[in-house]
Design goal:
The chain has 182 residues and is of the alpha+beta class. Strands 1-7-6-5-4-3-2 form a seven-stranded antiparallel β-sheet. It starts with a helix and ends with a helix. It contains five helices and seven strands; from the N terminus they run H-E-H-H-E-E-E-E-E-E-H-H. It has a single domain, classed as Alpha-D-Glucose-1,6-Bisphosphate, Chain A, domain 4 (2-Layer Sandwich), CATH 3.30.530.
């Protein structure tokens, strides 16, 4: 998908915006009550090469792009405070999903990031993506999220939004598996 000039303008206006939820960083530990929770942990493959390829694809926004989203980002990689406007949809019907990277993970055997929702996102919450190289050589990918509708209109569409979230999670996994393959 192509990025639009309006997403570039939106991105500039969001650089100083605050996340739309109080529990910033909560995907690192216990997820807060009152939200829909997502926990997904999958095997990507084995070995350092798979780990490095997965981490590079994740941190460079490739996983998102290869899952069918357009990404307009303030930084070429996911770094703290980077802002991105993500879009996914069918044909001309897309919805902007602005978010900000709230933390990153940069350890020898764990890499990833979490982003939180910004004003204009259809939900409020946070999603983390972490690739890890286990001691036995397995490379695993974990997605952890908490979210709830950001508006009355979004609350009406919550059941559909959960199905879309599951579909996107599946697409993230598929895209990262392909990016990680040696």
């Amino acid at each position: 998908m192509m990025t639009s000039g309006s997403d570039e303008q939106r991105l500039r206006s969001l650089v100083t915006a605050k996340v739309t939820y109080a529990e910033q960083g909560a995907t690192r530990a216990v997820l807060p009550a009152g939200y829909h929770h997502v926990h997904r942990d999958v095997l990507l493959g084995k070995g350092r090469v798979v780990f490095e390829r997965a981490a590079e694809g994740l941190l460079g926004w490739r996983m998102h792009r290869d899952s069918g989203m357009s990404v307009t980002a303030s930084q070429p990689t996911a770094v703290p405070a980077a802002v991105a406007v993500l879009r996914w949809g069918l044909g001309p019907v897309t919805s902007p999903a602005p978010c900000c990277v709230v933390y990153t993970v940069d350890e020898p055997d764990r890499r990833g990031f979490a982003y939180g929702t910004l004003p204009g996102h259809p939900v409020r919450g946070e999603e983390s993506f972490v690739v890890r190289l286990e001691p036995d050589g397995e490379v695993r990918f974990a997605i952890t999220a908490f979210s709830r509708p950001a508006s009355a209109m979004a609350r009406l569409g919550a059941p559909v939004a959960r199905r879309v979230q599951k579909l996107l999670t599946d697409r993230y996994v598929r895209a990262l598996r392909e990016l990680a393959a040696p």
